[in-house]
Design a protein that fits this description.
255 residues, mainly alpha
Length: 255
């Protein structure tokens, strides 16, 4: 039998260093621009407004802004050792102003003392006070001025108070009453009629001393008539209240 032919040698193995070339992509057919109509203008291309665009650039920009803000905050808080020195920025305090000694002004000469008022001028200045003095204060002032020898001012003030107050009226009546007049006082001469006039207010208000003295003066100066009868009534009121002088006068008059 004839001998078999030898088999063909195997193909050489592909080299690992030489990769097979990739097939080149077929070029896409270029889109021919449509014919522009007559009169139309070229419009500038606008970026797509649809939601199909990539948001990666916006995310990157946002992250960069956040990093910049964080770095600025860390720098301000001193995390990087570069915090601003607040004391260095504060303006330096101005130096204290020099102390200037001011000479004390020379003492002014005291104003000349006004002459003390006396008599009517003193009484008028007192009574025109604002507010006007109370009757009780007037009586006290009149007594003080009387002791000081200013009789004119004392009597004017006492007369004013007697027209408003029973106690002042009684005090003024006693200065004119023949039984109690003080020859060394401001009223040195008795005046029974004036005493009767000033006794009426306190007597009508129930003052025992005024009733007794008024009844005695009226019955001494009148033997009958309305004034005598008024005097008798004052004596009865005083005697009923226990006044011994009034009782003695009534007994003398036959009661």
């Amino acid at each position: 039998a004839p001998p078999r032919p030898a088999p063909p040698p195997p193909p050489p193995p592909p080299s690992a260093l030489e990769p097979e070339p990739e097939p080149e992509p077929e070029p896409e057919p270029q889109r021919q621009p449509e014919a522009r109509r007559q009169g139309e203008r070229d419009e500038p291309p606008w970026p797509p407004t649809g939601g199909g665009g990539s948001k990666l650039p916006l995310l990157i920009i946002g992250m960069l802004l956040l990093l910049a803000l964080a770095a600025a905050a860390a720098w301000y808080l001193g995390l990087f050792g570069g915090a601003p020195d607040a004391t260095a920025e504060a303006p330096a305090e101005p130096p204290p102003a020099p102390v200037v000694s001011v000479p004390e002004p020379a003492p002014q000469a005291a104003a000349p003392a006004q002459p003390e008022l006396k008599g009517r001028a003193r009484a008028q200045a007192y009574l025109r006070g604002d507010p006007m003095p109370a009757p009780g204060d007037m009586l006290t002032t009149a007594v003080e001025w009387e002791k000081g020898g200013d009789c004119e001012a004392s009597i004017i003030v006492l007369n004013t108070a007697a027209g408003m107050d029973a106690a002042a009226s009684l005090a003024l009546a006693q200065r004119y009453d023949p039984a109690t007049v003080d020859s060394s006082g401001c009223v040195s001469t008795a005046d029974a009629e004036t005493a009767i006039y000033w006794y009426e207010r306190p007597a009508d208000q129930g003052d025992l001393t005024a009733q007794s003295r008024l009844g005695l003066l009226l019955t001494e100066r009148n033997t009958s008539g309305p004034l005598f009868d008024r005097g008798m009534q004052y004596l009865r009121d005083a005697a009923k209240a226990g006044d011994a002088d009034a009782k003695a006068r009534l007994q003398k008059l036959g009661e």
